[in-house]
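User: I've been trying to design a sequence by hand for this structure and keep getting stuck. Would you show me what you'd pick, starting by listing the structure so we're on the same page?

Assistant: Good idea, let's start from the same input. This is the structure you sent:
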């Protein structure tokens, strides 16, 4: 992607970050004729973790007008997921829950670039290799974003003033860090993620058999997740390689240097049944191992009268249900609606931001309830989560309730579903479909 030209001194909205949250925010706003400027600190394409997408995301990419471009890219289409959790095997097939379109396994460098280029083609002014440093809210009607422009030989500093700031800086959480509102999840679940890539890995299909890699566009894979004594692992089949993630309890890996972590990762891949079989003919891609510690956090305040934090800049819990990108897209749609209305009627902007705060906290609370074994003091408002459960379309809720049975993480979620009065009906239906839980895989 090219990033050329002078960064203007003033605009309506500055978006910080060009991941799925930032690029879709810029698209929505530009499509409405709003002047929007996006600053992304890295050159694109850039690597990113988070390659398994559940089919909810299509409804947002339809709104953004980018679904056709995604379809023609030819990403791997997945039919669902299989988990082996505490030796119990569960399978989800999306088409059983009313989804006519597949989930995807995407190379995130390709996917994120496609979304960012789409934003640009819709009229957003995109500047890559420009890093936002801080935001000055001294004048509430004209916040100023200070940035460092790294495109030339010298890093030059600059600033741009705007009516609204959108923080989509991912786990850097630029604004929550500036405000001191970022909280680490206080849970037993303190994990580090290690992930790397293999060529020639076999993969697990929806038929519960393993298949050769060259079949992956023909016989749809599932996302494979499996628990083990220190955490859990994922296997995501991409077009040219497989993404393998090893989630490990922080205590287990404390004090290990990079070489020791790499050895731990490779040993885990060799030791675990099922995963070991899929990787038996595969080769590890040298230097492909990356890691992210303590990835579960949230911001106590995510919307203000002149700013909105969206995507991972607002919160992230755990990738076990593959809903990070979907959460980012949902909250982007809500936040940009609030900004559009605020630009039309600035007297109400505080009210819009309050409504948005409550809606977005509800959504993030919902996802924390699903992914965490315990609530602790992690900012989950139980009443908001229950209201959301009651408001979800029946099939969408059912898919989430089925997901909540796939691990031992969701006891609180089930309790909330009982209190919301949506669990009993589901449990009855689930009993009828119980044979879906099977005892073996053919790998
Ligand atoms: C281990 C792990 C596995 C995951 N697996 C999945 C999965 O399978 N499926 C799924 O849906 N989600 C998954 N996720 C979550 C997913 O990666 C994120 O939810 C998603 O990328 C969020 O998008 P975003 O746009 O908010 O942030 P990002 O994709 O992180 O984008 C943020 C962008 O902001 C830029 N930026 C940061 N700071 C600045 C700054 N100061 N100035 C300018 N730019 C800046 C960054 O360079 C980056 O490009 C996973 C997460 C983890 C940790």
């Amino acid at each position: 992607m090219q990033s050329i030209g002078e960064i203007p001194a003033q605009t309506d909205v500055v978006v910080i970050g060009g991941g799925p949250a930032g690029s879709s925010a810029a698209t929505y706003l530009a499509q409405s004729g709003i002047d929007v400027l996006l600053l992304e600190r890295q050159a694109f394409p850039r690597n990113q973790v988070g390659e398994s997408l559940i089919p909810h995301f299509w409804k947002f990419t339809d709104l953004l007008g980018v679904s056709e471009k995604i379809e023609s890219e030819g990403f791997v289409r997945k039919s669902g997921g299989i988990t082996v959790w505490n030796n119990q095997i569960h399978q989800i097939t999306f088409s059983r829950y009313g989804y006519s379109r597949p989930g995807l396994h995407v190379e995130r460098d390709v996917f994120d670039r496609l979304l960012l280029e789409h934003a640009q083609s819709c009229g957003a002014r995109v500047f890559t290799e420009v890093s936002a440093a801080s935001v000055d809210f001294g004048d509430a009607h004209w916040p100023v974003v200070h940035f460092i422009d790294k495109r030339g030989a010298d890093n030059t500093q600059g600033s741009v003033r705007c009516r609204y700031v959108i923080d989509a800086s991912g786990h850097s959480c630029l604004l929550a860090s500036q405000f001191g509102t970022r909280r680490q999840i206080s849970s037993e679940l303190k994990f580090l993620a290690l992930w790397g890539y293999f060529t020639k890995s076999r993969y697990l299909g929806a038929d519960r058999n393993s298949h050769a890699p060259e079949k992956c566009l023909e016989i749809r894979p599932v996302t494979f997740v499996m628990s083990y004594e220190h955490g859990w692992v994922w296997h995501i089949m991409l077009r040219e390689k497989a993404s393998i993630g090893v989630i490990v309890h922080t205590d287990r890996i404390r004090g290990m240097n990079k070489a020791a972590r790499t050895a731990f990762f490779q040993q885990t891949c060799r030791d675990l049944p099922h995963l070991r079989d899929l990787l038996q003919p595969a080769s590890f891609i040298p230097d492909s191992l990356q890691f992210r510690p303590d990835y579960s956090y949230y911001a106590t305040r995510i919307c203000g009268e002149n700013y909105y934090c969206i995507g991972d800049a607002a919160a992230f819990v755990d990738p076990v249900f593959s809903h990070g990108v979907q959460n980012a897209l949902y909250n982007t749609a809500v936040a940009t609606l609030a900004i559009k209305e605020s630009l039309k009627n600035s007297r109400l902007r505080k009210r819009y931001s309050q409504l948005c705060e409550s809606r977005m906290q509800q959504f993030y609370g919902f996802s924390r309830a699903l992914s965490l074994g315990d609530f602790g003091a992690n900012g989950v408002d139980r009443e908001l989560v229950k209201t959301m459960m009651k408001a979800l379309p029946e099939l969408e809720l059912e898919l989430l309730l089925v997901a909540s049975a796939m691990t031992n993480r969701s006891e609180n979620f089930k309790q909330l579903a009982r209190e919301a009065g949506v669990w009993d009906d589901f449990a009855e239906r689930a009993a009828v479909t119980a044979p879906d839980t099977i005892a073996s895989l053919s790998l």
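That's my pick for every position. To get oriented when you compare it with your attempt: Residues 432-439 have pLDDT under 50 and may be disordered. The radius of gyration is 22 Å.
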